[in-house]
């Protein structure tokens, strides 16, 4: 029995087992997002892919838990608690915005502590970690100002913002995630060996292309940057295009590395 089948792991959202899977895709959500963001993906991606949506505290089936406020603590826990699943078969990380920082930190811990790496790291809508956030923090703002920031970012649906009871439930989670992003500090470390595939939105003024290009310093492999039409949440407006792009990366990885290759070890 596989590790994924044996482990009822709190860090994974509801996972439909794919017996044909030869590579696992672990998906890390943006601030305020949950594993549910990736529920349509298994129907779209190739049948050799096992989609593994990462479920963070405070959302979905973990809604009763308080959300965590530090990316380093989340990365420590995920790297250790999901280690048996990471060792099971070749795997790839996809991280969006906050999730990109988290995926990068988990990958670094796996490399340094356990000598395994993803086959590739897919980074979307996130500046390279060495580029500081110059804007003042927003997670502690009064509610009205914080909601205005949410509107500016365009990631929270208008119907959610306008629903008073729903926003009362969402605000503590959103504040915690924003705090995690705004307090994140990159500690310099050796570059990874796996390739990076970096994605951005052409209209994302918070993460311009030069901030995406700066990810190149964190890998010894290739690091192409691909731009999609849209703002910071181009994943929502260009979902079909993004999933087609990811499917192409995974198909190419399988073709180049061999379908039964073990995870990178050194």
Could you name the key traits of this structure?
10 helices; globular; 8 strands; two-stranded antiparallel sheet; Rossmann fold; 6-stranded parallel β-sheet; alpha/beta; 266 residues; disordered C terminus
Structure at a glance:
With 266 residues, the protein is an alpha/beta fold.
Task: Describe what this molecule looks like in 3D.
The protein has helices at residues 3-6, 71-81, 83-86, 98-114, 143-153, 158-161, 164-182, 209-213, 234-237, 239-257, and strands at residues 23-28, 49-53, 91-96, 116-117, 120-124, 196-201, 225-228, 264-265. It is α/β, with parallel strands linked by helices and 266 residues long. It has a single domain, classed as Rossmann fold. It has a six-stranded parallel β-sheet, with helices on both faces. A two-stranded antiparallel ribbon has the order 4-8. Helix 2 (71-81) crosses helix 4 (98-114).
- Biggest sheet: strand arrangement: 2-1-3-5-6-7
State the end-to-end distance: 26 Å
What is the CATH topology classification name? Rossmann fold
Succession of helices and strands: HEEHHEHEEHHHEHEHHE
Tell me the β content: 5-15%
């Amino acid at each position: 029995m596989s590790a994924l089948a044996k482990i009822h792991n709190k860090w994974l959202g509801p996972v439909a087992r794919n017996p044909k899977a030869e590579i696992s895709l672990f998906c890390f959500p943006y601030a305020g997002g949950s594993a549910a963001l990736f529920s349509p993906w298994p129907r779209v991606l190739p049948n050799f892919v096992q989609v593994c949506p990462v479920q963070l505290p405070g959302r979905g089936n973990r809604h009763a838990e308080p959300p965590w406020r530090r990316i380093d603590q989340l990365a420590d826990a995920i790297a250790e608690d999901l280690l048996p699943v990471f060792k099971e078969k070749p795997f790839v990380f996809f991280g969006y915005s906050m999730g990109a920082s988290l995926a990068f930190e988990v990958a670094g811990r796996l490399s340094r502590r356990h000598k395994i790496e993803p086959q590739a790291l897919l980074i979307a809508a996130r500046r390279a970690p060495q580029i500081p956030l110059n804007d003042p923090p927003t997670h502690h703002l009064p509610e009205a100002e914080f909601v205005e920031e949410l509107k500016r970012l365009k990631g929270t649906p208008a119907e959610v913002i306008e629903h008073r009871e729903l926003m009362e439930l969402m605000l503590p989670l959103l504040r915690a995630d924003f705090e995690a992003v705004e307090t994140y500090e990159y500690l310099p470390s050796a570059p990874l060996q796996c390739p990076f595939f970096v994605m951005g939105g052409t209209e994302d003024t918070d993460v311009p292309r030069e901030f995406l290009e700066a990810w190149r310093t964190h890998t010894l492999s290739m690091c192409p940057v691909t731009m999609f039409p849209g703002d910071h949440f181009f994943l929502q407006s260009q979902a079909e295009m993004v999933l087609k792009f990811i499917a192409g990366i995974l198909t190419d990885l399988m073709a180049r590395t061999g379908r039964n290759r073990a995870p990178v070890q050194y």
